[in-house]
Amino acid sequence: MEKPLLVIVGDTLLDRDVEGAVHRIAPDAPAPVLDEESVSERPGGAGLAALLAAGHEDYRVALVTALAPDDAGARLSELLTDAGVEVHALPLPGSTPQKIRMRSRGQVLMRLDRGGPAQPPGDAPDGLLDVLAAAKAILVSDYGRGVARHPAVRAALEHASAPIVWDPHPAGPPPVPGVRLVTPNLAEAVKFTGDAAHGSALSTAQRTGQKLRDEWRAQAVAITCGPDGAILTQAGPTPLVIPAPGDAGDADTCGAGDRFAAQAALSLAEGALVSEAVQDAVGAATAYVLGGGVTAALAPAPEQAAIASPERIGADEAGRLAASVRDRGGVVVATGGCFDLLHTGHLATLRAARGLGDCLIVCLNSDDSVRGLKGPDRPINSQIDRARLLAALDCVDAVVIFDEPNPEAVLSWLRPDVWVKGGDYAELPEAELVKRWDGQTVIVPYLDGRSTTRTIAAAQAATTSGR
Fold first, then answer.
1. Given 11, 167, 258, 397, which residue is catalytic?
2. Would you say 375 and 416 are in contact if contact means Cβ atoms under 8 Å apart?
3. What pLDDT was estimated at residue 165?
4. Residue ranges of the alpha helices (H) in 330-382?
5. 115-161 pLDDT, tens per residue?
6. Which of 17, 111, 189, 260 lies at 20 to 30 Å from 199 by C-alpha?
7. What is the DSSP string of 69-132?
8. How many CA atoms lie within 13 A of 366 on its CB side?
9. C-alpha–C-alpha distance, residues 369 and 366, integer Å
10. What pTM was estimated for this model as a whole?
């Protein structure tokens, strides 16, 4: 069975990073001398969006773009094809646009742009745009160089039945009417509308989002706000605020907008609501930035670093946290349980545990583990929902999920300095294990009358009695 098709439409350019070292200043000018050490090339613009989308194993990805008959155009075609992207190229007069960054120790010293002013692409070869009619979803990744303005391309987009996500550019045309989602960033939205940007980012995004939605006749506008997530404007007057699930700090955000838009298109292709697609996109863009950005995302698989979880969930996250705390002489505290319906008893235990050290890692029973302990009707909430709720608490620093009926295996590799349980246990079977690495087991008070089992039983009794 053939995989469904995601089509990316837009301008592609060649990004080239020249890495080197600076040891001296040029004798003939007050400029640093970069001794070249390595050169890396990758598609930029819509080509980068296609490359990022091509990482989704369940979809074919096609790119409708414009390429010039020069060495840079040939290199782009090679890079994209090697990544599994189907290239459908309009003829491009002149030269392929290039961005060449001179870098040293992670800092860009200078950027050299080649290709000259944008020129309109030539006529589309017969049948080239038929790919749009076969798409499950379409992303227009406009970089303002003419593909999104091409009359035949716009006509094909207007007649497409697939949901369209449009990532606009200030130098590009407005989206075709009726697109499912438009994704400008806040600065672009201000520029498109001429808004004075008075007040908070939220109020500015609400004003500009509503104005752009009306002006462009789009179904929805999601204004991206970098580390603050996105603000979605739909038919109603109240926007939906979707915060980023992690703080990327001053990490490299190159390509984050492409990652956001590509994920939104993929989610819409899978039948998601617009609000769900934007939430998926915020999560994907945040993970992309936290994971190292474009360099890590496009690294060969064997060398690619693991993408960090913005929600601090997983064995890798817990292990890195524990190692970091130990390196600075801190105390690692862990606790465990099912945490099926989070209540004040749990919160009291978690806060007490966090106060015993410098980080708190929660070892969480998986769904299978809970069923084995509590019966086939449990858990009420899935392991990922339980993990996310725990990770959202300010007293929890990481969550790791385990499948066994008890946490002995996870404790053996985590090796916390303090293992905490809430309740009135006479003894804990894990205590002997924790002693092996000179760890300490403690019990903290548990609030009387707070119990997941009791809460479920009370809810079932209330339902049965008709209350």
1. 258
2. no
3. 98
4. 344-354, 367-374
5. 889 899 999 888 889 999 999 999 999 999 999 999 999 999 999 99
6. 260
7. SSHHHHHHHHHHHHTTEEEEEEE-SS---EEEEEEETTEEEEEEEES-S-----PPPTTGGGGG
8. 12
9. 5
10. 0.68
